[in-house]
Amino acid sequence: MSIIGSIPEIDSKNNLYNTCIAINQEGNLAAVHRKIHLFDINIPGKATYKESDTFKSGDKITIFDTGFCKIGLGVCYDIRFAEYALVMCQKKGAQILIYPGSFSMGTGPYHWDLLLRARAIDNLCYVIGSCTARFTQDSSVYWAWGHSRLVDPFGQVKVSCEYEEAILYHDVDLDYLDQIRAQIPIYQQKRYDIYEVIDKKSNI
Questions:
Q1: What's the rounded Cα separation, in Å, for the pair 74 and 61?
Q2: Where are the domains positioned within the chain?
Q3: What domain of life is recorded for the organism (predicted)?
């Protein structure tokens, strides 16, 4: 079993990162992903937020191998960037993408499920979105959307919850993943003679 979650991380230079970590079945640190895309938005009359006032962005694409499958990591706003998911899956071999996040009540109802399913369909992979539960007893605190879920490579939500704390279980079938990729062979149909997305850090 691997355990994946997010923490605020401070480096040796006192830079603060929104970081996702993975602990492997031996209890060792398997991966560290520092959020690449910071949540700087301005929606007039609704929300203004500048994550970059507090956090520094990461600069690496993060994949780790569990021995069962390859997992790609992102944090919250990272899910909005299709190119990032594409590189993790189609260039680096990720079969599952995991995004811990905390979507708001403003964007969550419209974007959370749509983005999880879009990334799954874009890359024919499993996508897991773990969103902060909503603490409804206190209206003065941040209300997250919740609705954690797992989406399969065909874009189907296989297991989900509402806004409360919950534990979700689902079997990941890599044979099914391979079947879907064979039936809808987008990996072989890419027109790299016309366009391409690369990982500039590793030149892949």
A1: 8
A2: 61-189
A3: Eukaryota
Structure tokens at 75: 């944090």
pLDDT of the residue at 203: 66
Q: Which residue has the tokens 């994946």?
A: 4
Assess contact for 197 and 87: CB atoms under 8 A.
yes
Q: For residue 189, what pLDDT is reported?
A: 96
CA distance 150 to 128: 4
**Cβ proximity of 34 and 58 under 8 Å:** yes
How many angstroms separate the Cα of 105 from the Cα of each of 47, 144, 174? Answer: 11, 6, 34
Q: How far is CA 53 from the centre of its chain?
A: 22
| pTM of the full structure | 0.95
Looking at domain 61-189, its CATH superfamily turns out to be Carbon-nitrogen hydrolase (3.60.110.10)
pLDDT of 51 > 70? The answer is yes
42 - beta bridge partners? 48
Nearest to 100 by CA among 83, 68, 75, 133: 75
Please give the backbone phi and psi of residue 176, each rounded to the nearest 5 degrees, phi first. -65, -40
